[in-house]
């Protein structure tokens, strides 16, 4: 059964920005659905339309059985929304924040009291109910945020970038809570993220969104399998007087000339080499570079990651501004040339 179905959902902001451009997808009951995309892709705009906070320019969606344009009030009763920007009152206690939300949803005081206890346990904040929120850590605050979206027992909860700005350890703990929630409450979770690992770890299915359009959708494994071949990642041994950038450039151009190399990409101080068959490519790469006097420090081989999937479909890395990129568009062109 589908809990969310969109029909060509579109939002054009005044001034002409086409933030969401005719998207169609379905989210099944009980699943964790990940909406993955870079800054400005249209993730928050999509969430706001599904939450009835803003109206679509055209198209519509059915959320928890009701049309967002025709029955926004019915939709609102059945959803929880945890915004990208924290909405808690820092000067109040956790309990006060949650109680306020309960009243907001018109729950009676007895129900609120009972649910506050349950939810604080669920997000592992039991004992902190009466502490002022400004004394919570970042991770605790995020858990309180999520708790606030749960007080009225929604069928669907929308989490907009639930771990943005948190340290890696806290992030992993939040993932556990989100997974537990899906299981313990049977709630459907729609989350947005620009962290590949987050989508990969958490989501049953992922839609990759870029420039307002869904460019591909599937389980994390399906998406990764849509890329053939392997990725060989290597780092170079540099002496003190070596120019590392120059050495990387020489390595890239030597490898790019080889027929078994589909493409290369610098990732930090490492080089990712896309090949058809990693096992036979590793010895060839070692031989080739040794012949040019280039020493390899580390070398490893892996199946492509979601990063590679993003690169394939958009022609950019999700962190394009950080990387130098031989884009997948270039890789594709090279592959096509080789097949001709
Ligand atoms: N109220 C608005 N008026 C005009 N343009 C807007 C408005 N809100 C968003 N946009 C534009 O719409 C596009 C999509 O924005 P949106 O906030 O949905 O992206 P996002 O995927 O959530 O990005 P981020 O990862 O940075 O949160 C952007 O180009 C943004 O500048
Ligand atoms: Mg956003």
List keywords for this structure.
single chain, 340 residues, Alpha-Beta Plaits, six-stranded mixed β-sheet, 12 helices, binds adenosine-5'-triphosphate, binds magnesium ion
Strand % is 25-35%
CATH topology of the largest domain: Rossmann fold
Helix content: 25-40%
SSE succession: EEEEHEEHEHHHEHEHEEHEHEEHEHH
Number of strands: 15
Q: Characterize the quaternary organization of these chains.
A: single chain
Structural class: alpha/beta
Sketch the major β-sheet. Answer: 6 strands, mixed
The top-level CATH class of the largest domain is Alpha Beta
Write a concise synopsis of the structure shown.
With 340 residues, the protein is α/β, with parallel strands linked by helices. The chain has helices at residues 43-50, 72-77, 94-104, 109-122, 138-148, 168-185, 196-202, 220-225, 244-256, 278-291, 306-314, 328-339; strands at residues 2-12, 18-23, 26-28, 32-36, 58-63, 66-67, 79-82, 156-160, 188-193, 205-210, 213-218, 230-236, 261-267, 270-275, 296-302.
Report on the architecture of this protein.
The protein is α/β, with parallel strands linked by helices and 340 residues long. It folds into 2 domains: 2-224, 3-Layer(aba) Sandwich (Rossmann fold); 227-339, 2-Layer Sandwich (Alpha-Beta Plaits), CATH 3.30.70. It is built from 12 helices and 15 strands. The strands form 3 sheets. Strands 7-8-9-4-10-11 form a 6-stranded mixed sheet, with helices on both faces. Helix 6 (168-185) links the parallel strand 8 and strand 9 (188-193). Helix 3 packs across helix 4 and helix 5 (138-148) packs parallel to helix 6. The relative contact order is 0.12.
């Amino acid at each position: 059964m589908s809990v969310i179905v969109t029909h060509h959902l579109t939002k054009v902001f005044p001034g002409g920005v086409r933030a969401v451009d005719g998207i169609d997808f379905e989210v099944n009951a009980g699943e964790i659905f990940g909406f993955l995309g870079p800054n400005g892709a249209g993730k928050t705009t999509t969430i706001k339309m599904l939450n009835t906070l803003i109206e679509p320019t055209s198209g519509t969606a059915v959320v928890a059985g009701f049309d967002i344009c025709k029955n926004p009030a019915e939709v609102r009763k059945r959803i929880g929304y945890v915004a990208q920007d924290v909405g808690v009152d820092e000067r109040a206690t956790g309990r006060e924040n949650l109680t306020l939300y309960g009243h907001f949803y018109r729950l009676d005081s007895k129900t609120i009291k009972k649910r506050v206890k349950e939810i604080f346990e669920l997000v592992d904040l039991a004992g902190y109910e009466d502490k002022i929120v400004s004394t919570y850590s970042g991770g605790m605050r995020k858990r309180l945020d999520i708790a606030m979206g749960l007080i009225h027992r929604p069928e669907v909860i929308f989490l907009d970038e639930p771990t943005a700005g948190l340290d890696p350890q806290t992030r992993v703990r939040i993932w556990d809570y989100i997974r537990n929630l899906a299981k313990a409450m049977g709630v459907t979770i729609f989350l947005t993220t620009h962290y590949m690992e987050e989508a990969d770890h958490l989501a049953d299915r992922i839609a990759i969104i870029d420039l307002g359009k869904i460019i591909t959708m599937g389980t994390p494994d399906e998406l990764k399998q849509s890329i053939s071949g392997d990725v060989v990642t290597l780092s170079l041994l540099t002496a003190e007087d070596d120019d590392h950038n120059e050495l990387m450039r020489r390595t890239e151009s030597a490898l790019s000339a080889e027929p078994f190399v589909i493409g290369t990409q610098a990732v930090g101080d490492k080089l990712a080499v896309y090949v058809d068959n990693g096992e036979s490519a590793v010895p060839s790469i070692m031989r080739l570079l040794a012949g040019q006097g280039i020493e390899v420090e580390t070398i490893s081989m892996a199946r492509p990651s979601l990063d590679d999937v993003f690169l394939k479909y958009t022609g950019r890395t999700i962190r394009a501004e950080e990387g130098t990129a031989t884009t997948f568009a270039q890789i594709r062109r090279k592959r096509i040339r080789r097949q001709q």
